[in-house]
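Figure 6 in text form: structure in, sequence out.
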């Protein structure tokens, strides 16, 4: 009974529900309390929805005797260690990493035609195996395995179990290669542990790109050795006048390392030529009038601009991008380019004409906010679309035209996946300039048809930005990100044929206890029937 979403989703969904009802019946009459709680999570109750699920056979049960087999490479062993790091505290089992033997949990690299990030998970009473062409696939398979276990597996103290994984096979691979989340560490500075905590949350949903918005009017957050005042002075405050902060190069490398260990690529952004007050305040020579403005701690946008006519501006850009590229193993440098309301159009175009080749000179690919499509995007450039339903037809047409001419697109429609938008008028945090964005609205759109006329090949994926004008603590970030982040991750990963609000809200409800167990603060949207216990 293979469930391949491109062919027969609905019939099998109904069949699956019937089986579930039958299973629930069996377990209600069973006397043992453990058995009653034990109907294992169905293989398709995972976010993002897997590409293909074939349920069948009895479940596997993790016990005190289970080992984790990780033959082959050091990287597979490291993924095994990550998995046991998750499983050991709640199960209380030793779960040794082994190279040989049979049964148990097995992670193995083997060519299966599922691509750079795909995996196959097979569960039988004898064991669970995850196989993949490449380590990233094994890591994503581990996230699926995690979600197939009871939510209590996420707790840090020993829990009763049982730890069962439904029988059958999952074959999975992403719809889009770029599945991103952005953190604005400029408006409020976020510490390295805060960023790591968010990275762990992103990994659970198979997100593979972490875009860091490292500079804005309110703060410059990364050390640049050739321009030391950027971080030391430009990073010394934030929205509301707090102390701000910045990452040393060692801090930044640590974020990159931590992300890479979870198969996320870091995309650093230096926003230019607008959103630059922190830089302009740090160096008078970057200003056309040679006068440094004061540091800024408000939340207005569009008032600052680098001086497009001055050579100092391009010396600055070259130094900053060179140092940033040297810190960046990833493919991309994001050069911003949004809301340059204090830069004339002609200046904006000439600035982008000079700056994009600098990115290429340092071996990286340009990403810019979609206003870049109003200039001359270089070949290979990617534009990040942050428009709304109500964005003018002319602006949309400009983006579509660029996509037809080869510019790639990352979709971040603000009235869908801007995680800083309020859910309702009563949401205590966030902004509402793009509208109120409840969970269903955030999930219910299709990246492939969102901008009619864009060729499918232009769409690189989906990114959910989290701007921090109103957000300071991890609990604030999480309240805005969860549950909507899970929906954005699913739009990026799952085949279009799995898209179904009713099925999604059931799967989403099952994430609530997991977030509780992980200590993740989330918005209990009334659109979702969260479990009560
Ligand atoms: C628009 S999106 C901005 C940011 C703000 C955000 C707040 C974009 C490229 N620019 O400067 O932080 O709205 O929602």
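Output sequence:
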């Amino acid at each position: 009974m293979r469930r391949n979403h491109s062919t027969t989703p609905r019939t099998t969904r109904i069949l699956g529900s019937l089986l579930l009802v039958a299973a629930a019946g069996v377990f209600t009459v069973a006397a043992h309390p453990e058995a009653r709680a034990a109907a294992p999570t169905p293989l398709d109750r995972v976010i993002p929805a897997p590409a293909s699920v074939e349920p069948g056979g009895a479940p596997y049960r993790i016990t005190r005797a289970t080992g984790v087999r990780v033959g082959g490479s050091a990287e597979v062993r490291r993924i095994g260690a990550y998995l046991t790091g998750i499983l050991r505290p709640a199960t209380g089992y030793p779960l040794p990493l082994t190279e040989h033997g049979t049964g148990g949990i097995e992670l193995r690299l083997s060519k299966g035609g599922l691509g750079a990030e795909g995996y196959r998970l097979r569960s039988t009473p004898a064991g669970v195996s995850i196989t993949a062409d490449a380590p990233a696939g094994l890591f994503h398979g581990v996230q699926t395995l995690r979600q197939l276990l009871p939510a209590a597996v996420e707790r840090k103290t020993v829990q009763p179990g049982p730890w069962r994984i439904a029988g059958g096979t999952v074959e999975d691979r992403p719809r889009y290669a770029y599945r991103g989340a952005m953190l604005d560490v400029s408006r409020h500075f976020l510490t390295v542990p805060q960023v790591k905590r968010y990275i762990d949350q992103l990994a659970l949903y198979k997100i593979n790109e972490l875009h860091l918005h490292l500079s804005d009017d309110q703060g410059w957050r990364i050390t640049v050795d050739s321009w030391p005042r950027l971080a030391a002075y430009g990073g010394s405050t934030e929205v509301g006048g707090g102390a701000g902060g910045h990452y040393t190069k060692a801090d930044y490398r640590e974020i990159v390392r931590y992300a890479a260990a979870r198969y996320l690529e870091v995309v650093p952004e230096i926003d230019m030529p607008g959103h630059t007050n922190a830089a302009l305040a740090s160096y008078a020579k970057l200003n056309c009038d040679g006068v440094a403005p004061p540091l800024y701690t408000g939340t207005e946008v569009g008032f600052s601009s680098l001086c497009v006519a001055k050579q100092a501006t391009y010396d600055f850009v070259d130094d900053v991008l060179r140092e940033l590229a040297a810190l960046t193993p990833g493919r991309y440098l994001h050069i911003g380019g949004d809301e340059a309301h204090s830069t004339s159009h002609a200046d904006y175009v000439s600035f982008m004409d000079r700056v994009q080749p600098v990115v290429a000179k340092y071996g990286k690919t340009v990403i810019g906010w979609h206003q870049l499509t109003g200039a001359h995007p270089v070949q290979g450039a990617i534009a990040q679309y942050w428009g709304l339903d109500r964005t003018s037809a002319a602006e949309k047409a400009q983006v579509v035209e660029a996509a037809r001419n080869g510019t790639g697109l990352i979709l971040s429609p603000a009235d869908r996946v801007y995680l800083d938008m309020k859910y309702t008028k009563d949401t205590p945090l966030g902004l509402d300039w793009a509208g109120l964005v409840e969970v269903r609205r955030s999930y219910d759109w299709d990246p492939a048809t969102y901008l009619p006329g864009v060729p499918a090949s232009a769409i690189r994926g989906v990114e959910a930005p989290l701007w921090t004008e109103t957000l300071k603590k991890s609990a604030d970030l999480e309240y805005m990100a969860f549950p909507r982040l899970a929906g954005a991750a699913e739009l990026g990963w799952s085949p279009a044929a799995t898209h179904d609000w009713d099925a999604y809200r059931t799967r989403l409800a099952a994430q609530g206890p997991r977030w509780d167990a992980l200590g993740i603060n989330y918005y209990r949207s009334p659109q979702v029937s969260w479990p009560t216990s």
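Caption detail: The two ends are 32 Å apart (CA to CA).
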